[in-house]
Design a protein that fits this description.
By secondary structure, the protein is mainly beta. Helix content is 9%, strand content 60%. Strands 1-2-3-4-5-6-7-9 form an eight-stranded antiparallel beta barrel.
């Protein structure tokens, strides 16, 4: 993973060799409409997204997007369970290298997610008098900030189509809260020796970003 991250950041070395005169370089579009292909194809938490990328100056830009997590075959794999919620992203970019067919950028990205996870949980009722399976709501709220690097690549045949691979690393804080009935005590559940679910309460963890946006030039 470290090797891939370093290789991505060293892409500007290749870009230098491809750079032409400033007058012949294509300008960054003033407005790009894009979607995150990686989020849609995520096998654990597929999401539909739409975002706008705005050029603020020749070297600075900003993007913001909204999405919706459709479900999760990992966290909601039983009948009646669901894993859905809001997905927000916003960030800034500095374009430090231009080539004939693209531009490289670095910047920051902030994120917020609000997921409602309904699942079937084992619980003790009435002070432990009996055990039953409850359909329980689990709220997951996430705030994060990451440094990122990426590039805009313009299609040679259709300059309106744009691919934007990106990668980044940051920190995310996850707040998890269950909402069982007052007389219920949820039993801890793990799949084997490890669970990908965040524990109840507040958890802060490193956050790795990577993916590809597919966009279209809306306005030059």
């Amino acid at each position: 993973m470290r090797t891939g991250f370093l290789a991505f950041l060293l892409l500007p070395v290749y870009a230098v060799a491809q750079t032409t005169g400033a007058d012949s370089l294509p300008p960054i579009p003033a407005l790009i409409l894009k979607t995150n292909l990686t989020a849609l194809l995520n096998p654990a938490k597929p999401a539909v997204t739409v975002a706008l990328d705005v050029r603020l100056s020749p070297r600075f830009g900003a993007d913001a997007g909204i999405g919706y997590i459709l479900d999760s075959p990992v966290f909601a794999d039983e009948k009646g369970e669901s894993y859905q919620g809001l997905r927000l992203r916003a960030g800034g970019k500095y374009y430090y290298r231009f080539t004939r067919y693209g531009a490289f950028h670095v910047g920051l990205e902030a994120k917020y997610q609000a997921v409602d996870h309904w699942s079937n949980r084992n619980a003790l009722r009435q002070g432990g008098q009996y055990q039953e399976i409850l359909h329980t709501r689990r709220e997951v709220r996430t705030l994060g900030l990451s440094a990122r690097a990426g590039a805009l690549f313009f299609s040679a045949r259709n300059s309106r189509l744009i691919l934007e691979p990106y990668i980044g690393l940051g920190w995310a804080v996850h707040r998890v809260r269950f909402s069982p009935p007052p007389d219920a005590e949820l039993l801890e559940e793990t799949a084997g020796f490890f669970s990908f679910e965040y524990l109840e309460g507040v958890t802060a963890l490193p956050d790795l970003l990577f993916g590809i946006h597919l966009g279209i030039d809306v306005r030059r």
